[in-house]
Structure formats: C-alpha cells, structure tokens
C-alpha cells in the first residue's frame, strides 16, 4: 500500500501548494484552461507531442510560436486533375474569373474580325455586281486592262506590308487605312475578272461561295479536329497549286483545254477552302495554334483573301461549265 505522501493532496492543500509536476493537468482554482497549440509555418517552432511531456505536460502558449494561424507555405499544395491549385476558394475564383475574361476577350475579338470581314465582302461583291451587271462599266474594265495590273501592284504591296510588318498592322487608324486600300484593290481585281464571264456564271459562283463559307464556319465551330497542326501540309499544297498553275498557264497559252482549266480551278478552290478552315480555327483560338486578340486586322485579312480566292476559282469552274 502506498504511503500518505504518495496519495493525492486534499483540495485545500492543492489550492495552496499545487504540484503540477506530478499532476500535469492540475490548474489553479478559477484559472482558464490552457490554450490549444498554435500552428506556424515553421515546423520546429511549436512543441511536438514528445516535447509536450518533457516540459511537464504544459502546452506552449500562443506567444511561443512566431506565427498565429496555420500557413500553407510549408506544406505541399494538392492539385486537381487539371493541374489547378486547390489552395483556397479565393484563388479558384480568380482562376475562373481569368478564364471567363479570356473567353470574353476571344469572343469580342471574333466579333470584331467578322464585322470587318462583312464590310470587306460587302464592298467586294458590290464592285463585282457593278462590273457584271452594268454594261458600260464592264466594257470600260475590259478596254483598259492596265488598271487591273495597277490594282494588282497596289494589292501586292499593301499585302506585304500587312503580313510582314507588325507595327502598321496594329497601329490604329493606319491599319484600317491600309486594309481599306487593300480591299479596294482586290475588289477591283475580282470585279475585273468577273467582267469576262457571263452573268449566270458570276451568280452561281457567288451562291456556291456563300454556301462554302457558311459550311466551313459552322464546321470549324463544331468539330474537334485540329487543322492548325497541319500547317506544313497546307504549305506543301500551296506550292503544288503554284506548280500546277504554272503548268496549266503554259499549256493553255498554246491551246485552250476546258477540262484542264476546270481541274486546276477545282483544285485551287479545294486548297483555299482548307486554308479557310485553318484560318478560321486560328481565329477561334481553342486549338494548338491561335491568333492573338490584338491581330484582328490579320485575322480579317486572312479570311478575306481565302474567300475571294475561293470565289475566283469557283467562278472559273462555273464559267467553263456554262460556255
């Protein structure tokens, strides 16, 4: 049996002479409970369970830890399956806000490009209609082909500036002025070519071009196939089209072969339709490659050139078919 000295003290003795070393959880009467341990970003700042007992069973006060509150800086942050940090709701809100802002910027960019493209196509097809349906204008264009070559020189010069020089392409209003000159030059060229064909062939070409453009736009916004990763193949196709065009021009200069002319025009229409798909997906921006939202002039220019070339190639096919 243990002695009296080993037995617990009476309540009055405990109040006068507390023995915290023997009874770790004994506190003075009326004193508040010790605060819970405080966490810190420094792993060794607070006591471990082993050091808790080595110091007489007394929890460290909050002032013993340098930082109040638990910090994530010393812990690995778990990530979601998409690689997003799951650190706090605030950071997740910021991420989704940035995603929404990026999407809204892209949508505004697409609307701006298609607005500019609509104006360009309206000007071009208005010129084509005048050169086709107004007989005196049609005769004037055919009589003075030098204006066509002058417009071609302006077209090529401005096109090189807009494609190769970033500063004029992005500086407002210089970019719109250059794009307007380019549109007028290419519209005159398209109208001059249309004046050599029958009215029926021009109308058919306009209708087919509109159907192709609408179908390509809907396809690009719906498909999951990434055509932006096929830029090398499209470059090869463009080189082949150039070679076929040179060979066709040489052959047709000696003897006109309708089926050869139609074949070349059909190949050209198909290749430029693929270019239209490629540039439209660059515009949308949810593929491997994308156009910067600052390049709205470049986006409108690319789509416009593709559509006009599709129209001219289809016009050659329809013109050869209606002869």
TrEMBL record:
It is a multi-pass membrane protein. Residues 18-29 have a biased composition (Polar residues). Pfam families: Bax1-I. It comes from the Eukaryota. Residues 1-42 are annotated as: Disordered. GO terms for biological process: negative regulation of apoptotic signaling pathway. It is found in: Membrane. InterPro entries: Bax_inhibitor_1-related. This is Transmembrane BAX inhibitor motif containing 1b.
């Amino acid at each position: 049996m243990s002695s009296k000295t080993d037995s617990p003290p009476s309540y009055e003795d405990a109040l006068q002479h507390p023995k915290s070393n023997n009874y770790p959880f004994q506190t003075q009467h009326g004193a508040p409970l010790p605060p819970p341990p405080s966490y810190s970003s420094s792993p060794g700042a607070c006591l471990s369970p082993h050091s808790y007992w080595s110091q007489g069973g007394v929890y460290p006060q909050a002032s013993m830890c340098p930082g109040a509150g638990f910090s994530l800086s010393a812990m690995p942050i778990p990530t979601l399956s998409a690689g997003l940090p799951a650190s706090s709701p605030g950071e997740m809100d910021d991420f989704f806000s940035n995603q929404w802002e990026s999407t809204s910027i892209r949508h505004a960019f697409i609307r701006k490009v298609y607005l500019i493209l609509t104006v360009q196509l309206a000007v071009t097809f208005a010129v084509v209609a005048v050169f086709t349906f107004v007989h005196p204008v049609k005769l004037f264009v055919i009589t003075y082909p030098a204006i066509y070559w002058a417009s071609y020189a302006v077209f090529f010069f401005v096109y090189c500036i807009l494609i190769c020089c970033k500063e004029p392409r992005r500086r407002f209003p210089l970019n719109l002025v250059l794009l307007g000159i380019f549109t007028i030059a290419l519209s005159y060229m398209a109208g001059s070519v249309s004046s050599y064909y029958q009215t029926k062939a021009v109308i058919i070409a306009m209708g087919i071009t509109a159907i192709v453009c609408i179908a390509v736009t809907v396809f690009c916004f719906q498909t999951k196939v990434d055509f932006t990763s096929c830029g090398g193949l499209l470059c090869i196709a463009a080189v082949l089209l150039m070679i076929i065009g040179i060979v066709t021009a040489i052959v047709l200069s000696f003897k006109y072969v309708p089926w050869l002319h139609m074949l070349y025009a059909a190949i050209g229409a198909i290749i430029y339709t693929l270019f239209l798909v490629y540039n439209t997906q660059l515009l949308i921006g949810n593929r491997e490659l994308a156009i910067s939202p600052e390049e709205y002039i470049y986006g409108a220019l690319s789509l416009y050139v593709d559509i006009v070339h599709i129209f001219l190639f289809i016009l050659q096919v329809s013109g050869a078919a209606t002869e």
